[in-house]
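Task 17 of the worksheet. Students: predict the tertiary structure of the chain below and write it out as C-alpha cells. Keep your answer in the requested format; marks are given for formatting as well as content.
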Amino acid sequence: MFELLEEIHTPPDPFQFYTAADLWTDEHTSERMLKFHLDETLDVSSRNTAFIDRSVDWIASRFDIGAGKRIADFGCGPGLYAARLARRHATVTGIDFSKRSIRHARKTAAREQLTIRYVNRNYLDFETDDRYHLILMIMCDFCALSPAQRRTVLSKFHAFLEPSGSVLLDVYSLTAFSEREEKALYEPNLLGGFWSPEKYYGFLNTFKYEKEKVVLDKYTIIEARRTRTIYNWLQYFSPEDLEREFMECGLAIESYYSDVAGTPFSPHSREFAVVARKL
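Model answer:
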C-alpha cells in the first residue's frame, strides 16, 4: 500500500504519459462527456450555448463564411460548431476521438441535411487530400498536447490549408497558470461517479511544472478489479511562445483575441485566441 501511495503522489516528467483514449473512448466517461457537451449552461466539455452562438457569428463575419468555404474542425465533439457553420452553407469536416460524440453529430447532420463529413479518429492520425480555407481547434485542445504532438498538429494544419487559409485556435495563458495551485485530493467516487459506473476510490493530484509552464491533473482510479491512472496535461502559453511554435511549422500569427468570439486581446485574460495564416 505504501508503494502505491508513493506512486500516486509522485509527479512524472512533463507529458511522459498520454491517456486521451481513456477519456474519449471509454463507454462510461464518453457518455458523461457527451452530456457535458450538450448541457447548454455549462463550460465543461464545450462552452455554453450563448457563447458558441456569439463565437460562430464572429467566425462567420471574420472569415466570410458561406457557400464554397471549406472548414476543418479538429476536436469537433458532437458538432456544436460544425453544425452551426454548415447551416451557413460552408462545407465542414469534423474530426473527433469520441465515437459517441461523432455518432450524435452525424445524426444531427443527417436530420438537418447538412454538408458535414465527420471522421471518428484521433486528429493526430488524421490525413486527407482535402484543403481548407479555415481550420479550427477550439476549447483549448491545443494545450492538452505535448510539444511533439503540437508540432505534428501544426504541420498538418500547414499541409491542409489552402494558400490563403487561416487557423483559429485558443489556449490558456500564463495568467491562468499563475492561478493554478498544486493539491492532493482523495474522495470515494471522485467527481460524482464520472470515472466508472461501479464503486471506486479516486485520487486527484495536481502537479505544477514552473519551468515548462505545464499543469498535470493526475487521476488515480481504484476499482475492485482494476486501477487506472489518467493524465490530464495542460500547457500554458505566452503569446511569444505560441508564435515561436507556429513559426517553426510555417504559420504566422496575424492577430490575437481574448477568446474565439473576437473579444479584444487583454494580457490579463485567462485564455487567448489567435488567427494564423500559412507562410
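Marker's comment: DSSP finds ten helices and eleven strands in the chain. The longest helix spans residues 49-62.
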